Amino acid sequence: MEDHDIEQSNTYKKGRGAQINTKNKFQKNERTREHIESIDDWTEPNIATQYLEENAKGLVNKVDSPDVGMWYSMNPYQGCEHGCIYCYARNSFEYWGYSAGLDFETKIIVKKNAPDLLRKFLMNPKWECVPIGLSGNTDCYQPAEKKFRITRQLLEVCNEFNQPVGMITKNAGMLRDKDIIQELAKKNLVSILVSITSFNEDLRRVMEPRTTTGKQRIKLIE
Fold first, then answer.
1. pLDDT for 84-136, tens place per residue?
2. CA distance to 48, 57, 142, 180, per residue, from 168 (Å)
3. Sequence-distant (≥ 6) Cβ neighbours of residue 178 within 8 angstroms
4. CA-derived radius of gyration, the chain
5. How far apart are CA 112 and CA 76, in angstroms?
6. What is the pLDDT of residue 7?
7. Residue 2: pLDDT above 50?
8. For a pLDDT cut of 70, what percent of the chain falls above it?
9. Please, what's the b/e burial string for 97-120 (b: 16 or more CB within 10 A of its CB; e: otherwise)?
10. How many CB atoms lie within 10 A of CB 65?
11. Number of domains in the chain
12. Residue 219 to residues 170, 171, 172, 215, 216, Cα–Cα distance (Å)
């Protein structure tokens, strides 16, 4: 079946990068659909976005991988509604008991106590101040941020403690926080990267279905 035929079929889930839930290798017993044409009595998963609020035990993680380019990272959300089909963070979602497929972009774990955890972390007298990457795993400005505003609260804590922070995003929602970002920039405490994959909107909608357009990202850079 050609790509355009799949898009126009009843099985194509518009607005989602993954089309199925793949197997979670950490679960002993699981019922999965590995191919679109398999299992006649399969019940399709709910593809509406669900926000799962939790009180996390920790927030700031040490990054040991030499090819990532950061010392520490913090993620206010696990899972990402942007749904980029190539996202390397998909596999990490299996640690939470979910699939790296549709679950990753429909079940968003919200760390509602993240600002308190960051404040506690920065107050540790043993902390030697080095930059922290805000969202080294999933986008801190994904659609959930419009509702929960956790990223903004983290930036406010960073500004209060003069903590340098780096961010990468595909979402122009960052413009909402221009005021606090300017405050950090005055003290040379913030670094921002904007990822632009393509200006071909048909391609972007397939690869990154719930990200902002390439033109909007240019506006963000400007």
1. 999 989 988 888 889 888 999 999 999 999 999 999 999 999 999 999 999 87
2. 26, 24, 11, 16
3. none
4. 19
5. 8
6. 42
7. no
8. 87
9. ebbbbbbbbbbbbbbebbbebbbe
10. 8
11. 1
12. 12, 11, 8, 6, 5
Please state the rounded mean pLDDT for residues 63-83. 87
Q: Which residue has the higher pLDDT, 37 or 76?
A: 76
Identify the bridge partners of residue 63 per DSSP, sorted by sequence position. Answer: none
Supply the pLDDT for residue 42.
58
195-222 core/surface letters (b: 16 or more CB in 10 A; e: else): eeeeeeeeebbebbbbbbbbeebeebee
* Distance in angstroms (rounded) separating the CA atoms of residues 60 and 108: 19
Give CA–CA dist 187/174, Å, rounded. 19
Nearest 5°: phi and psi at 168? -135, 135
Token digits for 92?
A: 């990490």
| Tokens found for residue 10 | 């009843």
